[in-house]
Amino acid sequence: MAALRHGEAYGYQILQTLGQVEGMAITESTVYPILARLAKESLVKVRVAPSPAGPPRRYYRLTKLGELRLRDMAAQWRLTHEAVDSLLKGMPDE
Amino acid sequence: MSDANMNLSTDVRRRVEQHLDALEQTLAGSGMSREERRSVADDVQGQIVEMLAARAPNGATVADVEAVLAELDPPEAYHGDAARATPAVAAVAAVVPARFSRTAIVGAVWAGLFLFALVAFFSASLKVVDHHSGDQPPPGPSVIAMIGIAAGIVGLAAPIGTTACGLAAISQIRASLGRLCGLPLAVCDALLFPLLILDGVICWGAVAIYETYRVDLGQQGRSNLAIALICIAIVLIVAADFLIGRAVWRAASRPNPQGSAI
User: Fold this and answer.
1) Distance spanning both ends of chain A, measured CA to CA
2) Best residue in A28, A42, A60 to probe B by mutation, most B CBs within 10 Å?
3) Is residue B166 within 8 Å of residue B191, measured between CB atoms?
């Protein structure tokens, strides 16, 4: 969902965006089912548009509900991140 | 899936379709809806075609397709995406706030309506008795009375509705892998009326035993028999409810390896 916060993107494009993020080694068998479920839960909206490469592309865009959910998740993630960081404080790097 | 725009040879297209068919079968086996399966298959198809276009701009061969498919996850990888998520993805999924199961809440509210229906029923019975004994005319139908009757009718279906909602909620919560919470309420919904029926049967058995043997007993003997049967019935009810409740709770809260998650 965070990969969609700047605008719409199609499945493979999202996959490539995520692939460029270090530590986010994530494949299509994880991303596409999640996109389908987000669409089912109305957290993203799908727009089908022609593609120069082949079959029509499915462009995903966050809905208002999706933006709210992303904000909630981001806040939760920051809390978890800070909590784990405080637990790991002083621990030597391997 | 649409092949209308795919500029691929028949052999290449056939191999791609084979892969997509296997993928759809796996997704169907994992309980995904048809709409979601179609969405996933379309995304995978789009990716394959783009990868083929990048790899062989002048026309892909079957060898190119095999090379592209080798870079992709096999269809089996789509069975339970959460199980194969990377640690980062699993961590994100872990902090998604869980939503309380609406089905479990509906079941609980439905059970409450049953109580309302009982109260309304007894209240109406008392009014009928009052009417027969008194000289006031019966009150005419009012909006509140009509709403009460409607709620009462819905409430009387609660033994089936609440149990069904409870079972559905347990199933949904188990499949959600943490996205839905409220398992205790769902188990209560599922068990409430079946256990009440069982308790009723035990009480009925105790009364039947008492009625069978009381004629042969004196006053003291009847009291002793009644006390003994009440104690036995209470012990049986508590034991049966506890054992069944614990067994169902253990089964419902067992980890679900086939579940799906975000």
Assistant:
1) 32
2) A28
3) yes
